[in-house]
Specification:
With 83 residues, the chain is α/β, with parallel strands linked by helices. The protein has helices spanning 42-50, 65-79; strands at 7-11, 18-19, 30-33, 54-57. The N and C termini lie far apart (28 Å).
Length: 83
């Protein structure tokens, strides 16, 4: 269950159209979906789309999941003015 009005972001190096760092008007609450280093399966992507997730990326390099998590939280918190 994700509350209405929550911005839903899924990290995906393969189908994302824009980088997380360039999102405009990011406001709380935010729900993040981070997948495995090899990327989401097609069924996972379809489920994320069905639940209104927006695909974003951290750049062209594939990061380890632990690194991607820290980078993502840092970018989101900075855009929310929490750093």
């Amino acid at each position: 269950d994700i509350a209405a009005g929550t911005r839903r972001l899924a990290l995906d190096n393969y189908e994302a159209s824009h980088p997380l760092g360039r999102l405009r008007a990011l406001a709380a609450p935010v729900c993040l979906a981070l997948g495995p280093e090899r990327g989401w399966a097609d069924a996972d992507r379809e489920l994320l789309r069905q639940h209104a997730f927006e695909f974003v990326h951290l750049g062209s390099r594939v990061l380890r999941a632990e690194t991607a998590l820290v980078a993502t939280l840092t970018l989101v918190r900075a855009q929310l003015g929490l750093l």
